[in-house]
User: What shape does this take?
Amino acid sequence: MPLLHISTSAPPAEESKRAELLKGLSALVARLLGKPESYVMISLAARADMSFAGSIAPACYAELKNVGTMSPGQTENLSKVLCQELSRGLGVP
Assistant: This one.
C-alpha cells in the first residue's frame, strides 16, 4: 500500500481546499506508481513545528513509502512532481 505522509508548518487551508489537495495527491501517486488508487493512502499533518535551513518559514516534509522497487529515474520524477504539487497546494517553496 503506497503511503504519502506529509508534515507541514503551513497553516491549514479551509476544509474544501484540504480535501481537494488530498484527492489530487491520491490520484497523482496512483498514476505515478501505476497502482490502483484504492491502495493509496495520503496523510497530511498541518501546523507541525518545523525549521529548515535555520528558518521557521513555512516548510514541508514528505515521505513516500511503497512496496516494490523504483528506478532512480522514477524516484527523481516522483520527487519533482510531488514537490511541485505540494508547493502549489500548501504554498511552501
About this structure: Residues 15-33 form the longest helix (19 residues).
